[in-house]
C-alpha cells in the first residue's frame, strides 16, 4: 500500500517536521517525533469521502441555510441528549471523555440501544473489549431482550481504515469507537495512543462522519493530567466534547459539555450508576440535601440553576481550630480558590476571623459545581459554623459575593425560588436587584429577604 503524505509531529510541543529529527528542533525533546498523516489517509477513505469535482462556491441566504439544518438524532438517554442540546447531529463527531471505569462504555451501549429502539443502525467498534465482553454487558443491562440484540453490530477492531470501510459499507446511523486511545491507522508507525495515531484516527473518523452522515462518538480516556488523549489537538477536531465525571466509589455521574458546536455548554446531565447501568435523574428533588430534620451549625441550602435546570444543593462547612502550622482550606465539590477568597472577605468585610482556622466545605451528594451563585450560601455556612449557630432548615440563600462584601444578583432568581418553594422552603436570602431592574414575580408563600451586603445576609440568617 502506498504511504500517504506524512509529517513528523513532536509529542511534546506539537512541532511539525518534514522528516524524522532527533532531538526536536523546537523544544529539544529526545525521541519525541512520531510520524503523522498529513493528507487524507487511505485511498478507500478518500474514494468514499472526498469531494468529487470542484464545484463553484455559492453563498446562500440565512433562510436557505436554516432549511438545511440537520435534524437531531436523540440517543434515547435523555440526560445525554440534554447536554448535547437535543441529541447528536448526523454527520458530526463527538468525543466522550472520562476516567477509566467511570461508565463511558456503559453509557454508549445504552445510547446504541436507544438508537436501535428508534429504528437506527449502530456500528460499535471496540478496541478495548472483545465482542463477547460487550455482549456480556448488554446482557447485564437487559438489552438482549430488545431489538438492540439484532441491530447493534459489534466490531472488535481498532484499525481505523477497517472501521471506516465497515462504516462506508453498512452506513450506520451511529458509529461508536471505543476508544480513541486504542485506535490506530495502519499507515502510521507510532504506537496506539500516541498523538500521531490519536489525531490521525480522529481525522479519518471525522471524515467518515461527514461522508456517511453517521453521528460518530469517540471514547477518550482522560489521563492523570486531566487532558483527553494527551495534547489538546483532539478537541479542535471534534464538534463536541462531553465529559462524564463522578466519584468512582459513589453512584452519581454528571455529564457536561466542555465544547459544543451545536448547542450550549451550560447544561448539566445527572445520572446514577446502578445494577442496570446508568439511569437519568430527571428531577433531583432533595437528592443533594441531607435528610436530617434538626438544625446543625454550618449548613444551608442553595437554590442553583444548572443550564435550564433548577436544583437544590446543600452546602456544608466546618470551621475548626488549627492544631499547628498553616491552616487548611479543603473544598470537596466546590472551588477551593473561591473558598479561600470567601474566607478573606468574611474576615475583612463581615468581622468573622477565620485566618487561623482549619476550614472544610463540601456539597452534599458528591456533586461538583462551580456556579458563582454558591458564594453566599458557602459564606453563610462558614459563618454559621464559626459562630456555632444553626441556620433554619426552611431557609435558602443564593448570590455572588464581591471582594468588597457586596452581593451581586444572579440570573433566573424566580425559577430558583419556585423550585425551593416546591420543596417546602419558606424563606430566601437573595441579593437586592440592581437599581431599575425589572422585578420578577416571586413564588407565593416564599418570604424573600433582599440584602446588599454579606454582613446584612449574615444578620438575617443568624440573627445579631
Ligand atoms: P464502563 O462503562 O466499563 O467504564 P469505562 O468505559 O468508562 O471505562 O463501566 C465500568 C464500571 O461500571 C464497572 O466498574 C462496573 C460498573 N457498572 C455498574 O455498576 N452497573 C452496570 O450495569 C454496568 C454495566 C457497569
Ligand atoms: Mg470502556
Fold and architecture overview:
- This protein has helices at residues 43-49, 62-67, 78-84, 104-117, 131-140, 148-151, 160-170, 195-212, 233-237, 336-350, 375-387, 413-422, 454-462; strands spanning 6-10, 16-17, 33-37, 93-98, 122-126, 152-155, 174-178, 215-221, 240-246, 252-260, 268-274, 277-280, 299-306, 309-321, 329-332, 357-363, 395-397, 400-401, 407-408, 427-431, 447-451.
- By secondary structure, it is α/β, with parallel strands linked by helices.
- It contains 13 helices and 21 strands.
- Strands 6-5-7-8-4-9-10-11-12 form a nine-stranded mixed β-sheet, with helices on both faces. It has a four-stranded mixed β-sheet with strand order 13-14-16-15.
- The model has no long low-confidence stretch (mean pLDDT 90).
- It has three domains: 1-38; 40-48 and 72-280, Rossmann fold (3-Layer(aba) Sandwich); 299-433 and 440-462, Ribosomal Protein S5, domain 2.
- The N and C termini lie far apart (82 Å).
- β1 and β2 form a beta hairpin.
- The relative contact order is 0.10.
- α7 runs parallel beside α8 (195-212), α10 packs across α11 (375-387) and α11 (375-387) packs across α13.
- Bound molecules: thymidine-5'-diphosphate and magnesium ion.
- Magnesium ion binds at residues 104-105, 128, 178.
